[in-house]
Amino acid sequence: MKKPIQPYLHFDEKCQEAMQFYQQLFGGELEIMSIGESPAKDHFPPEIHHQILHASLNNGEFKFMASDMCGMGELRQGNAVQLSLECVTREEIETLFKQLSEGGQVVQKLEKQFWGSLFGMVVDKYGVRWMLSLEEN
To answer: What is the per-residue DSSP string for the chain?
Structure first.
């Protein structure tokens, strides 16, 4: 594969709120299309036209996509997907860790690990699992 894997997250009618939160944290260009704004709106019941059909956050090589479940059944947040983020500075990792853990849950506190990196894990307020690391010399 020549391009990095791009995570695709699903939310239960919180996609727009979550993606705006992530844009605030990571910057970049956010594109959001609701079902009602899409050419495919006639294929969905009117009562879910407010849901997000597709959203993407793009900040250079940092990119991920998301949607609401859009009538596709019940959303079940699990632990099968985590997003790993390599930070560049100590300030960046500490700021992101703090902001992602607000309203969420710290799984592993941010601390130096045996392999030499500063590392921590958090589940944010939307149920998304994050692994943050900083390779320190």
So the answer is: --S----EEEESS-HHHHHHHHHHHH-SEEEEEEGGGSTTGGGS-GGGTTSEEEEEEEETTEEEEEEE-TTSS-----SS-EEEEE-SSHHHHHHHHHHHHTTSEEEEEEEE-TTSEEEEEEE-TTS-EEEEEEE--
Which pLDDT value is given to residue 23?
97
Q: Does domain 82-135 correspond to CATH entry 3.10.180.10?
A: yes
Instruction: Specify the CATH number of the domain 8-68.
Output: 3.10.180.10
Domain coordinates in residue numbering, the chain: 8-68, 82-135
The pTM score is 0.82
pLDDT over threshold 90, residue 102: yes
Over residues 25-80, the pLDDT tens digits come to 999 999 999 999 999 899 899 999 999 999 999 998 889 999 997 667 777 766 66
